[in-house]
User: Fold this.
Amino acid sequence: MIQIDDAGSGSLIGGTCIGVLRKETMEYYYEIIPIELYRDSAFNEKKYLDYVVIIVSNLLKKLNVDTTEEIQICRGYMFDNLRKWLSRENYNYLSCKIEEPLQSIIESTFENYCLSLGLFKNYIRFNKYPFHFHTILKWVYADYEKRKDLCKTGWKSWRKYGNLKPSIYETIALKSNIMCLKCGKEIKRNSKVKAITYISNRKTTIIIHDNC
Assistant:
């Protein structure tokens, strides 16, 4: 039994993780769709869907999957072109909801990938929806010039909220247990800080160290 799933297609930052698992042996391979395919004309032409076919065809070869082996594939839009390819190649596949074990494995893979991009582990751990658009947008605006290039800039939501003009002012941190979204370290209560404020779907204020 082969499982195929994706993680990160709804995340503002990074590409999308495509993973393939053989359940009986727990052999697992993955690749990341490059972020460049989520920009400009490549995004408009949905080139990322073509890249899914390239990834999966390579991973099926690694796993020595033949056309008789059962394949379960996520029913999401990310695999629209892949389903056509699998049909042409006469693979035995079924579109369905992918559950364990691949679900947890690929989500963990994507989290580790985002950590490698600079996202903070505690920011993921303590947010109920860590990859929600506006949660990630806060992290981006905390160090905008450095982090904007990590974003899926072809998205309509990025075009709407990705080029705001925040106001920045100095203030004092009135609460404890605040994380600086630029460096990821703790901000001490009553310390001097910078506040970055912008309005997207609502007014948002980001607190960073004064020297960050």
